């Protein structure tokens, strides 16, 4: 739409990415939302925990607006990657609740500041640690969309559920037989290409 508000546009894309990521947990068991589906342990609840932490830091501390949320997985002595999985004591409700509180805190920061408002990312190198809200919104949207993409694949591997949202899969309107044929054709093309001398 011509003449749209850049901050509102960015905020809408952030909200869409958040909802897409959180939707990937719907209908799954505690085991499946924690289940490591890649050799590096990527799992759905861990992705939500990680992105919640990102929002709290980037829209909180970076702009002098700390959330007050404890993030012990970033503390001294925390093991590497502790923000990428939920312990057995951290429930789905705790992690999704943290994410929703992160949304509220981030949204308040976004509403309170202009796109040109300046903050500082202390964990970035000094030559690029001074940032604007605009840059941080772009950064967090990119990060959230990246992890929503991971969640798309992880969810498909768990139970075959695909798509953008419950009300809009954003997938071709074809049946399961078509998808099986499609995948088999791609496998054939890959094998043929792999057998072709380079």
For the structure shown, list the relevant keywords:
198 residues, mainly alpha, two-stranded antiparallel sheet
In short:
The chain has 198 residues and is mainly alpha-helical.
Please describe the biggest sheet, giving its number of strands, its sense, and whether it closes into a barrel: 2 strands, antiparallel
Oligomer: single chain
* H and E string: HHHHEEHH
* Approximate helicity band: 40-55%
How large a portion of the residues is in β-strands, by DSSP E?
under 5%
Structural class of the helices, strands and pairings? mainly alpha
Rounded to the nearest angstrom, the distance between the terminal CA atoms is 47 Å
Per the principal axes of the C-alpha atoms, what is the gross shape?
Answer: globular
Contiguous low-pLDDT stretches (5 residues minimum) are none
Computed over alpha carbons, the radius of gyration is 20 Å
Q: What is the count of β-strands?
A: 2
Average the pLDDT over all residues and give the rounded result.
92
Textual characterization of the structure:
- The chain is mainly alpha-helical and 198 residues long.
- Helices cover 54% and strands 3% of the residues.
- It contains six helices and two strands.
- It has helices spanning 6-23, 30-34, 44-58, 92-112, 133-159, 176-195; strands at 118-120, 130-132.
- Strands 1-2 form a two-stranded antiparallel sheet.
- Helix 1 (6-23) runs parallel beside helix 5.
- The mean pLDDT is 92.
